[in-house]
Amino acid sequence: LSQAATAGGGDSGGAEGGGGSGSREAVERLVRAHPVVVFMKGSPAQPLCGFSNAVVQILRLHGVEDYRAHDVLQDPDLRQGIKNYSNWPTIPQVYLNGEFVGGCDILLQMHQNGDLVEELKKLGIRSALLDAEKDQDKK
Amino acid sequence: RSFTSQTDGEARVTRVLREKFPRASAIRVVDISGGCGAMYEIHIESEDFREKRTVQQHQMVNQALSEEIKSMHGLRIFTSTPKQ
Predict the structure, then answer these.
(1) Does the ipTM surpass 0.90?
(2) pLDDT digits (tens, 9 = 90+) for A41-80
(3) How does it assemble (chain B) (predicted)?
């Protein structure tokens, strides 16, 4: 199993079926490479879209700083490939444990209704908000 | 902005949603790109969404608007089911 390249550019891949960084196989490798994978515009340090920024901020609120982020603006093949893979027309796209969860609106809803804390727990990630709540209880 | 005035884009997207979701009890489409037709906010309430996960509900809207989405820069979707 070869290591997935986060940059994605210049990947000539296999001869059959197109290959390349936007192929189903390449995307599959990326979404399975880490429990939390985000396809966005720009980077977590510098998001280039309000919706991508919202995803980054929500993850940060929950204390999730260790995740794989892929900048689709750097790779047109990946940009189209990820949309084909999930059959979802927009960026950002959030994957938890290799499964497509949704975009910014869905992640926001999950954050607001407590589902995100639960989903992170299933991945063995303790949301920072749980500790914040504990602090409040003490007062 | 008066209730009856809509941009052409809002009217078109609303029409497509009415056709594809005949059971919808409420549909509201708002151009949030300042009237440029680049970005829309879609609110749709329908029995069709009952018992479905949010991502599946949004997928149904994506499929219904697959043609219109091609010319959009982005969209926001808010789905719900009628109160029983």
Answers:
(1) no
(2) 999 999 999 999 999 999 999 999 999 999 999 999 999 9
(3) Interacts with NFU1.
**Looking at the DSSP assignment, which residues form a beta bridge with residue B42?**
B29, B77
Query: Do the domain assignments include residue A29?
Result: yes
**Tally of domains within chain A:** 1
pTM for this structure?
0.83
Kindly state whether residue A13 falls inside one of the protein's structural domains: no
- Residue A107 CB partners (closer than 8 Å, separation 6+): A54, A55, A58, A94, A101, A116
The structural domain count of chain B equals: 1
Contacts of B52 in chain A (CB under 8 A): none
Cβ-nearest to A109 among B54, B62, B66: B54
pLDDT digits (tens, 9 = 90+) for A94-117: 999 999 999 999 999 999 999 999
> Rounded to the nearest 5 degrees, what angle is found at the Cα of A107, between the Cα atoms of A102 and A109?
115
Across the interface, whether the CB atoms of A90 and B54 are under 8 A apart is answered no
Distance from CA of A64 to the nearest CA of B (A): 22
